[in-house]
Amino acid sequence: MGANSSSISELPENEYLQKLSGSEPISENDPFWNQLLSFSFTTPTNSADLKLLEEATISVCKSLVEKNPRTGNLGSLIKVFLSRTKELKISAECQNHLFIWQAHNALFIICCLLKVFISRMSEEELQLHFTYEEKAGPSSYGAECEDLIEELLCCLIQLIVEIPLLDITYSISLEAVTTLIVFLSCQLFHKEILRESIIHRYLMHGRCLPYTSRLVKTLLYNFIRQERSPPPGTHVFQQQTDGGGLLYGIASGVATGLWTVFTLGGVGSKASAQPEQCSPLASQSLLLLLVLANLTDAPDTPNPYRQAIMSFKNTQDNTAFSSSNPHAFQINFNSLYTALCEQQKSDQATLLLYMLLHQNSNVRTYVLARTDIENLVLPILEILYHVEERNSHHVYMALIILLILTEDDGFNRSIHEVILKNITWYAERVLTEISLGSLLILVVIRTIQYNMTRTRDKYLHTNCLAALANMSAQFRSLHQYAAQRIISLFSLLSKKHNKVLEQATQSLRGSLGSNDSPLPDYHFWEMSDCLHFSETKLRHAQDLNVIEEVIRMMLEIINSCLTNSLHHNPNLVYALLYKRDLFEQFRTHPSFQDIMQNIDLVISFFSSRLEQAGAELSVERVLEIIKQGAVALPKDRLRKFPELKFKYVEEEQPEEFFIPYVWSLVYNSAVALYWNPRDIQLFTMDSG
């Protein structure tokens, strides 16, 4: 590292920062700005340096907050930045390093100051610091008082969408994205969801609004392209071996004043090595996109960024745009699909995939039509398989993605036609060859079993079973291990049912004060019986109700497969016959009698044929008899039930879930951003 951590702590005493936060107004034409903005650094990324930088910034900000209403120096700094960005596009084309370098440095300082301001004051107070009007003296902006917040927001958006992404512009593009995130970070410091915000209003109306589709498109392409950060030295000034030219002479002449101590993360620094963040710009752009897409609707208009995400089309789609949505645009779906497949290890990429599948019918149709759907499904299954290592939100998103996909019958058929070889991450059993459909069943069942023993989350159970139910009518050529696991899950549920039933029965018997008198069947317990229940005993009855709902669902899934595709699934019939005794107790059970009819018929029919074939049959011979019997079994003997179909529907007020989730991702994953955890109000640290 170019300077140790103690160097950062010296920043509050630096003469240039002291002048910026001092009592004297500084005109935007003052040579001071050239001195302030001529420094070379690589943004700190490790948490220790970021925390130190935050603390140093706070010290400067305290003085600036007090004196800025009189000096307007924050406004002057912003105007200096705005004036320099007007030539950025030409500077990039002409490789004008100096201009881009100083504009980036100005934005970096603004971002650092803004972050502290926003964490310590209301938006109304922040606005006052932006509305200072110089009373006298020359001004390159004229005498009128401009709305600097809107001016700066619009400038940042223009910078992101218009400046070409080159090595020399990478850092300023990243800083523009970061500053927009910081502008929106006021949500972090409120427990309640912000439904009206000054910053939101600027972004959804006025000068920023026409850039909506271009901003969303650019952020998506940043995510798609995964452009790596250029090597250190390509976007900052380094002394040349030949003695340096004019640019270095200017830089070295003024850098001694302020920023020679601030060379964090330079060449050879461990802080700059980020194996998880191969593309800081892609990561930061995705976070900003998620934040924008989850802003609450304004009272008079829906969120335009969400509208853009809901409506964009493939570049190969030649149909006309709907006039009802002015924010629609086109993007290369093949590139987007590839990026989504490759980036699913991160929560934010999974959340983006969920949003696109749920909200954009064009993307959903395209994904379901892909012939390489395994490239998308396998990373999602890996998330669920490693459920112990993932946070619950990530698991939910992965599971809901599967549920959305299984709503499509074409998907449910095609996954059984995709044959996979050697699934190395599946550790319970060596899977040398298995269909994608059978693997999906295995992973979902494993998730259910994990949930039963660990988290006991009814929501997770419900969505897992809904995905299995959606697929059940199209089960094809189930792998023998997948068939076994379906029946094994039912066995586990059966044992749990018996245990809970015994506990519930003992609870009622104890409440009635008798251990010997017979009890009525628990399905016919009277309210007067239940009044004897304590809270613990009532929970046993509730647990029994939940477990019976799950058992009913599993029986419906097995029944759906037998009714619709029995002849395609000899391994399931084999597993059913092998564990036939499991189902005996449910034949006369009032909750399951109807659904057990078909299962009982299949067991009886095939058991009879096996008995006729003689004893000591090999597995191969049993499967052969099952295949022959499947053809001979009259289909009209199986009772028809309504088709099992479940559709994912977002709960009311989804923002109550998604906004804290998105900001927890920003808090934990944003590049070179640090917030004091004690200041965070939106979520608790364990949920972040």
From TrEMBL:
GO terms for biological process: Golgi organization. GO terms for cellular component: Golgi apparatus. Keywords: Lipoprotein, Myristate. The keyword Transmembrane helix does not apply. The keyword Membrane does not apply. It comes from the Eukaryota. PANTHER family: DYMECLIN (PTHR12895:SF9). Belongs to the dymeclin family. This is Dymeclin. The lineage of its organism: Eukaryota, Metazoa, Chordata, Craniata, Vertebrata.
